[in-house]
Amino acid sequence: MANDDTNGRRTGDRMSDTDPAENMSLAELREEIEEIDRELVELIARRTYVAGTVAQVKEERDLPTTDESQEARVMERAGQNAETFDVDANLVKAIFRLLIELNKVEQRSSR
User: Fold this and answer.
1) Residue 51 CB contacts under 8 Å (≥ 6 apart), including other chains
2) Residue 76: domain span
């Protein structure tokens, strides 16, 4: 279920049709982008940490680095999330492909 955030936009759903430029200055919009960028980096760091833990489990259990069925599920989920938030699915999938490849490189180098 979607909720309104403090700026009156919908969260957990597609962004509302309200134009944030009507109520925010260019500086405020740039500050918001800066905060979003910080949050994105934090989320990438969290994902990388968890992926590192997955790599340890794979190594302990002598499992292969690559799991194509899991990668397919991640990509499917990325596409669905892109649609939910009205973002270009190809762009989102490209970002996730990069994240997956970076995690695999790290997993291979740690073995």
Assistant:
1) 103, 106, 107
2) 19-110
> Of the candidates 94, 63, 66, which has an alpha carbon nearest to the alpha carbon of residue 78?
94
Of residues 87, 66, 77, 75, the one with CA closest to residue 13: 87
Q: Does 99 map to a domain?
A: yes
Strand partners, 3: 11
The H or E element containing residue 42 is helix 26-60
Q: Is residue 67 part of a domain?
A: yes
pLDDT number for residue 82: 98
What CATH number should be reported for the domain holding residue 63?
Answer: 1.20.59.10
Dist CA 89 CA 71 (whole Å): 16
pLDDT, tens digit (0-9, with 9 covering 90-100), for 85-101: 999 999 999 999 999 99
């909720």: which residue's tokens? 3
Specify the number of domains making up the chain: 1
Classify residue 104 by burial, with Cβ atoms within 10 Å: 0-12, 13-18, 19+. middle
